[in-house]
Structures are given as structure tokens and as C-alpha cells.
């Protein structure tokens, strides 16, 4: 079992865990950081402050109770349907591939694909919000690059 | 570098060979505490997997076992055979037993001979295979997959395979899992013996705790046959009356086709025919359809009776009738006010006064007729409602359809206005478009279905231009009337559409399947999922096979009952185009009707 840290396309830290159960069974799991208290409290307080502002304007206490309900239902929906904690891929030799995504609320959705139904495996690549930066460089023979001192390529950020 | 890649390729080759040699043993978890014996099950050679169905205990007579297996094979059509041996030693390993078990392989020849042994209460079993006729004995990797025999037997894998249509090439296509599910489901006969049955051979497998004889269930089973026969007789009687010649004369049949209540009653009659037919449902889909129809009918009627009990308490029908007539009056008065407004200068628009007055008076006269008609009807309304309300015992959907029909009848004047306005507007639009072509020196060629250029005479052009001008200046007046009445009509159509949507929902919802999914989620399986159990080096990999239930969305999609009405095929754009051109729109086209 080994664990490596990467960054996702949007820059969030993710951890890849590999596990070899046996010669023909292997599990790969990608884990996202858990929901942080800071962001949760920030969103909640933002919603409640907005509701309080509306309450002051309209002087209707329905707004406050509606805000509480919206926060609660939104949190439940977010934890149960949106926020994915871990995605894992279980490859069992000659049996099939199983993809599991477990949500923050503990719900797991699993799909098992039999080996006979797997036609091909494709690694898909996407470029998402990657800043491309250009810099001046000169090519000197044989095969060496000469960078200008200003605007050096260290500021080039590539996300994995 | 070249050597490294060569090595890698070699390793890949080896690993692929290992993968090909993996042996899968599907072991029922209920057999894990069975006493030592032999494993019987089905060997699926193309998948290199063994599905173990039961364990036969010691002592047994080999001839009897063979006889029993051939009998099972004859009944279930599954090639059940002895696959290997099972030893469950409570204490330390007994040498003599293991030798004896190996010897058993010679009696029941099977290739390969699987040996599973459990020591004490250890979770990790050792598993090995013997291959006698193989010249190069290789180390095979074995995966032990535990499955719940009862759940796998009772569950149905989705999408359901049609056994009737599946041909040879489809059998190859069939997934491995469905083969396993099929094997377990087919050998139901094997499991039917409960623990109190005593045969010559002692087996361990999933067992029911004996048939629980509930007297109510037995009575209902006995009663269902005559009840079905009575129902069939009644249904055939009713459908015979419906098809009789008196009711299919022209005005009546036209009336039936326009009333949604009749459609709904016919639909329910078909459902009753399906339920009461004494033919046994062949496939799972048919069985589920029958059960769904039955539950939907039951719930529909229960809701209808609830509605009826609410309606007939405290003279609510009388109140309803008392409010209905003033409401219709009120609507008519509002319409009169609206027409008066339209006859003046609506929203500050200057209309053609003469045409405006003519149209307004025409519609006002219509409303006057309508009001007198309603006043004529008013003494009988309560009685009619009282008798119509009784039909709610046929189901909530029927009551809703009646409500929709009553709305359609009470707003008949709005429909009439809409039709008049639309026809007038349509006429003007068509006239204008053809005169616009004349204006440009073109005409519509009917034979070629296209616009051709054409040279008109001077007087033709003169008359055409004059007519075009007149129509163009009269258009706003008619367009305003058309717009107002179309909006009113759309309001009624939306209300009716909502009622029909509700009826469709009750008609098509597969309630039985949803309840089954809720309470016995393993019965409707979308597939399986595996969980890797705790493992130790040198012991085979252990997996737990669980059933992945079908999602609610696909349950509804798979088992949705067909309804008689379909949604309008017009897209929003074509609807708007129709409205603009003044063509009549009907909200609800029925499937049987041809679309003009």
C-alpha cells in the first residue's frame, strides 16, 4: 500500500492510494480533502447574514426560518449528492472492474463492469484552466536552451 | 534499453497468462459452517469458474449421490456435478481425511478437482486444485467469492434477458454474471427441501424454515380462482355491452371519443382483463406488469372511495352545486365585461369601429345564450353531481377525468369563442399572405408546390392591392379578439392538462416495483458489487459479492405502465407558429387517433 500526493486539475490537493490485494486484484483510490469547517461556516454565515439583511428590510420573520431551512436542505443535498470524498477503482483480474464513489454522507454508488463487457481502456486528457505563459528563449547548438533572466519559466505552473 | 523493454514485455506476457488462469469459486456464505463433505455445483468452463450450490455431508454412498445429481439435472436442466471436496476440521488437520478427500477425486472425476479446507474458526481457508490429466501443472490463482444464496436466487438481473428471443449468438453475448444468477435461480428445486425433510443424502444449502401455512393466505389462494372467473365474466359482459350496436351509432360514438372519462374507463377495463386472465405470467416482466396494474388499481380505487366518503359527508355535494352555478355566472359576467372593454378602446388602441361592434355583439349574444342555458340547467345540477359523484368509487382517476370533462363542458363558450376568433384570424392571415405574393408579382404554384413568378393584369393588381389594404387595416381588430380568446383557451387547456398529468401519473406509476425496491432491494438487481475481504499471504483472495439494487429512476423507467394519452408532439416553436398562424391547437392527442 502506498500513497502519493498530487494536485487535481483545479489545483486542489488529492491523494492517490494504491493497494495490491493479490496478483490479480488491485485497488486504486483517489481521495479528496474533506469538507472544511472554515468554508462551511463561511457559506452558512453568508446565507444567514443575507437573510438578516432581508429581514431588516422586509420585517418578515419568515425570511429567517426560510434561511435556516435552505441552509439545512442545501447542506444535506450537498453532502449526499455532490461532495465526493473518495473514488476508487477495483480491478479484479478476469472478473471485472468496479468503480465506487463514496459521498461525504457515506452513500456509496458502485458500478461493476464485467471483463467481457470492457471494450477498451482510454486515458482521457483534458486541459482545464491551465495558464499558459510564454517566455523568451534562445536555442543554442547543440540542444541547449538559453532563457532570459527576467520572466523565467519557474512561474510556469502546470497542474497534473 | 532493448533488454529492459524485452523483459517488461515478458513480464506482461506472464501476467496476462496468470490472469487467464484465475479460477473463481463462487461459494454460498450459508455453507461456511457445513460439515466436511463434497461440493456440488456447476462448472462453467468458458469462464473458468465454479458455482457451488450445496455441500453433501459424510457419510454417503457415491452411487446414490450420482443418482440424485442426475435427477436434479433432469428437473432443473442445469449440469450439476461434483466439483470437489470440502473439509471443515474443528481441531488440527487430520492427515487421513485429506488423503481420503484426494481419493474421492478418483470416484467423482472432475477436472479440475477443487479442494477447500477450513481449519477451526479461521476465516482464511486454503484452497487448491488438482489436475490429473494436465501434463504441466501450473500454480493457479484462486479467487473465493462468497455470495448470499437466497438473495441471488430471488433477485432478477436487469435489464431482463428475453429467453424466448435469445439465440445462440446471444447466449455468447450473455454476461458471466447472468449465467451465475441463472444457475442459482434454476436450481431452486434443490433448495426447496426444508430442514425437516429427511432424504438419503444430507445437504447443506440455503433452506427455508419450512413452509409457514398461514390460513388466510391459503384461503385467499383458494378464493382467487373463482374471484378471477367472476371478474372475467363481468368484464366480458361490460365490454360486450360497450361494443353493442346501440352505442356505436354516429352521434354517440363521437361523443364517447371526446369524453376523457370514457377513455379512462376503457383503459381500466383493459387492465381488469389483464388481471383476471387465468393465463400464468410467463416471464418476470409480465408478472411485474400484472402486479403493478393490480396495485395501481387497488390504490386508485382506495383513493376514490376516500374521496367519495369525503364528498358525501355533511352534504358537501349540495354546497358544491350551490357554488358551481354562481361561479359559471360570474365567469360569464366577467366575459361580458371583457367584451364591453374590447368594444370600446381597449388599452387605448383605436380599432375599426364597425367590425369591432359586429364581433362584440356576436359574442355577447353567444354569452347570453350560454347564461340562459345554465339557468335552465341549474335545478338539476345538484342531482347530476350526486349521481356523477358515485362514479368516484371506480377510482380517483375516473373522478378526475369527470372533473376535467365538467370543466370542458362549463367552458364550452370559451372554446367556441376561440374557434371563431381563430378561424377569422386564420382566414385573414392566409388572405394577407397570398395577396402579399400578388403584391410582389408572384403566386403559389399548387402543382409544383413552390412560389412562381406570375404577370398579373392591371385590374387584378388593383383589386388585389385594395383587398390587401382593407385586410391589413382590419387585422388588428381581429388579432386582438383572437389574442384575448386564445389566452382564455390556453388557461383552460393548462388546467385540463394538469388534471390529465395527474391521471397519467396514477395510471403509469409502477407502485409494486417501487415498494419491492424499497423493502426488498435485492429483488431488482442492476448488477453486483464486490467487497475485498481481509486477507492473508498464501491464502486465496476473498471477495464478498453483494447485489447492487436498481436505482429508483430506472425502476420507474423499466416498469412504467403504458398510458393511452401521449404528450403533445409539438415543440414549443411549432406551437408558437401554430398560434401565430391561427391554427387550432388541441392539447391532448390520443394514441389511437390519426394526426391530420
TrEMBL record, chain A:
Highest taxon of source: Eukaryota
Family statement: Belongs to the PIGH family.
Domain named Phosphatidylinositol N-acetylglucosaminyltransferase subunit H conserved: residues: 88-130
Keywords: Membrane, Transmembrane, Transmembrane helix
One GO term (biological process): GPI anchor biosynthetic process
Source species of the chain: Mycteria americana (Wood stork)
Pathway linked to the protein: Glycolipid biosynthesis; glycosylphosphatidylinositol-anchor biosynthesis
UniProt KW NAD keyword: no
Protein's recorded name: Phosphatidylinositol N-acetylglucosaminyltransferase subunit H conserved domain-containing protein
Matching Pfam families: PIG-H
PANTHER family: PHOSPHATIDYLINOSITOL N-ACETYLGLUCOSAMINYLTRANSFERASE SUBUNIT H (PTHR15231:SF1)
Cellular component, GO, one term: glycosylphosphatidylinositol-N-acetylglucosaminyltransferase (GPI-GnT) complex
Transmembrane segments: 40-57, 63-82
Cross-referenced InterPro entries: PIG-H (IPR044215), PIGH-H_dom (IPR019328)
Automatic annotation (TrEMBL), chain B:
Pfam families linked to this entry: Gpi1
Swiss-Prot/TrEMBL GO biological process terms: GPI anchor biosynthetic process
Keywords of the record: Membrane, Transmembrane, Transmembrane helix
Membrane-spanning ranges: 293-312, 358-377, 384-411, 417-439, 460-484, 490-515
InterPro entries for the chain: PigQ/GPI1
Keyword Transmembrane assigned: yes
Gene Ontology cellular-component terms listed: endoplasmic reticulum; membrane
Protein name as catalogued: Phosphatidylinositol N-acetylglucosaminyltransferase subunit Q
Annotated organism of origin: Mycteria americana (Wood stork)
Amino acid at each position: 500500500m502506498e500513497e502519493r500526493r498530487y494536485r487535481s486539475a483545479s489545483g486542489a490537493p488529492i491523494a492517490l492510494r494504491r493497494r495490491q490485494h493479490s496478483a490479480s486484484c488491485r485497488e486504486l483510490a483517489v481521495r479528496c480533502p474533506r469538507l472544511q469547517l472554515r468554508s462551511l461556516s463561511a457559506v452558512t454565515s453568508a446565507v444567514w447574514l443575507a437573510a438578516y439583511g432581508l429581514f431588516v428590510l422586509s420585517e418578515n420573520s419568515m425570511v429567517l426560518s426560510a434561511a435556516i431551512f435552505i441552509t439545512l436542505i442545501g447542506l444535506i443535498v450537498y453532502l449526499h449528492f455532490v461532495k465526493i470524498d473518495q473514488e476508487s477503482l477495483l480491478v479484479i483480474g478476469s472478473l471485472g472492474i468496479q468503480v465506487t464513489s463514496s459521498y461525504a454522507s457515506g452513500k456509496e454508488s458502485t458500478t461493476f463492469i464485467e471483463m467481457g463487457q470492457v471494450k477498451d481502456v482510454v486515458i482521457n486528457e483534458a486541459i482545464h484552466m491551465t495558464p499558459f505563459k510564454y517566455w523568451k528563449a534562445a536555442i543554442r547548438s547543440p540542444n541547449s536552451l538559453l532563457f532570459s533572466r527576467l520572466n523565467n519559466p519557474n512561474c510556469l505552473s502546470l497542474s497534473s | 534499453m532493448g533488454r529492459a523493454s524485452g523483459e517488461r514485455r515478458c513480464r506482461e506476457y506472464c501476467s496476462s497468462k496468470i490472469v487467464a488462469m484465475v479460477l473463481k469459486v463462487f461459494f454460498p456464505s450459508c455453507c461456511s459452517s457445513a460439515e466436511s463433505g463434497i461440493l456440488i455445483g456447476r462448472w462453467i468452463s468458458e469462464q473458468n469458474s465454479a458455482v457451488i450450490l450445496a455441500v453433501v455431508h459424510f457419510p454417503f454412498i457415491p452411487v446414490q449421490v450420482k443418482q440424485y445429481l442426475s435427477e436434479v439435472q433432469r428437473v432443473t436442466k442445469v449440469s450439476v456435478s461434483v466439483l470437489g471436496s470440502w473439509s471443515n476440521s474443528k481441531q488440527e488437520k487430520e492427515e487421513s481425511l485429506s488423503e481420503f478427500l484426494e481419493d474421492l477425486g478418483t470416484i467423482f472425476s472432475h477436472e479440475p478437482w477443487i479442494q477447500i479446507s477450513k481449519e477451526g474458526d479461521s476465516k482464511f481457508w486454503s484452497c487448491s486444485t488438482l489436475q490429473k490429466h494436465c501434463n504441466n501443472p501450473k500454480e493457479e490463482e484462486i479467487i473465493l467469492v462468497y455470495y448470499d444464496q437466497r438473495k441471488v436466487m430471488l433477485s432478477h438481473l436487469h435489464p431482463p434477458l428475453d429467453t424466448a428471443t435469445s439465440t445462440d449468438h446471444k447466449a455468447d453475448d450473455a454476461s458471466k454474471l447472468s449465467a451465475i444468477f441463472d444457475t442459482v435461480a434454476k436450481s431452486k428445486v434443490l433448495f426447496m427441501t426444508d430442514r425437516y425433510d429427511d432424504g438419503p443424502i444430507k445437504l447443506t444449502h440455503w433452506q427455508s424454515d419450512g413452509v409457514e401455512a398461514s390460513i388466510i393466505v391459503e384461503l385467499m389462494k383458494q378464493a382467487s380462482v373463482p374471484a378471477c372467473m367472476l371478474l372475467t365474466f363481468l368484464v366480458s359482459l361490460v365490454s360486450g355491452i360497450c361494443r353493442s350496436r346501440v352505442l356505436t351509432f354516429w352521434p354517440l360514438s363521437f361523443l364517447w371519443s371526446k369524453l376523457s372519462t370514457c377513455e379512462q374507463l376503457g383503459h381500466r377495463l383493459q387492465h381488469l382483463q389483464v388481471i383476471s386472465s387465468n393465463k400464468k405470467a410467463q416471464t418476470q416482466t409480465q408478472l411485474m406488469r400484472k402486479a403493478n396494474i393490480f396495485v395501481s388499481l387497488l390504490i386508485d380505487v382506495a383513493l376514490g372511495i376516500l374521496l367519495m366518503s369525503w364528498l358525501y359527508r355533511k352534504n358537501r355535494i349540495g354546497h358544491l352545486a350551490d357554488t358551481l352555478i354562481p361561479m359559471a355566472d360570474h365567469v360569464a359576467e366577467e366575459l361580458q365585461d371583457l367584451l364591453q372593454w374590447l368594444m370600446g378602446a381597449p388599452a387605448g388602441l383605436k380599432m375599426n369601429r364597425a367590425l369591432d361592434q359586429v364581433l362584440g355583439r356576436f359574442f355577447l349574444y353567444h354569452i347570453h345564450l350560454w347564461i340562459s342555458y345554465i339557468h335552465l340547467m341549474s335545478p338539476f345540477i345538484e342531482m347530476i353531481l350526486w349521481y356523477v359523484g358515485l362514479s368516484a368509487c371506480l377510482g380517483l382517476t375516473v373522478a378526475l377525468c369527470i372533473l376535467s370533462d365538467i370543466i370542458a363542458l362549463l367552458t364550452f363558450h370559451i372554446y367556441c369563442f376561440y374557434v371563431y376568433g381563430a378561424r377569422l384570424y386564420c382566414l385573414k392571415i392566409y388572405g394577407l399572405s397570398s395577396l402579399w405574393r400578388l403584391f410582389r408579382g408572384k403566386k403559389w404554384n399548387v402543382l409544383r408546390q413552390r412560389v412562381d413568378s406570375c404577370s398579373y393584369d392591371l385590374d387584378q393588381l388593383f383589386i388585389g392591392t385594395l383587398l390587401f389594404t382593407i385586410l391589413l387595416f382590419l387585422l388588428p381588430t381581429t388579432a386582438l379578439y383572437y389574442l384575448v380568446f386564445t389566452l382564455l383557451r390556453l388557461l383552460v387547456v393548462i388546467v385540463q392538462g394538469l388534471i390529465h398529468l395527474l391521471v397519467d401519473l396514477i395510471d403509469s406509476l409502477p407502485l409494486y416495483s417501487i415498494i419491492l425496491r424499497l423493502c426488498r432491494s435485492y429483488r431488482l438487481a442492476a448488477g453486483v458489487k464486490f467487497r475485498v475481504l481481509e486477507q492473508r499471504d498464501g491464502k486465496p483472495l476473498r471477495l464478498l459479492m453483494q447485489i447492487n439494487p436498481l436505482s429508483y429512476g430506472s425502476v420507474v423507467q423499466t416498469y412504467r405502465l403504458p398510458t393511452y394519452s401521449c404528450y403533445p408532439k409539438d415543440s414549443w416553436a411549432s406551437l408558437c407558429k401554430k398560434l401565430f398562424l391561427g391554427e387550432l391547437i388541441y392539447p391532448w392527442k390520443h394514441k389511437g387517433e390519426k394526426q391530420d
